[in-house]
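U., I forgot to send this yesterday:
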Amino acid sequence: MKTKTLFSLLAAGSLALSTAVFAAGAKTYQVTGPVLEVTDAMIAVQKGKDRWEINRDANTKVTGDLKVGEKVTVTYTMSASDVEVKAGKGAKKGAASPAASPKK
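Result:
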């Protein structure tokens, strides 16, 4: 009986730790203010003098009646959609990077 309890506790502990490891990937942020506009793909919130537009989709959890004028707190993460690497100041045009050059 004690063995089953021990294995159950170990399984629950490892599950909790693995969830924490995966959740540590992206930092979450929040913005609070009145809703200016709502669509299926976006919610716009007034924060001070700024308009914040945040993407949303079918997986976005909404609690309550989301409509223009309601005060909301939106929790979000930042995610890169495109990355373009520019040559640094010291790089010469036409010079291959050391990683790309074959070794002799």
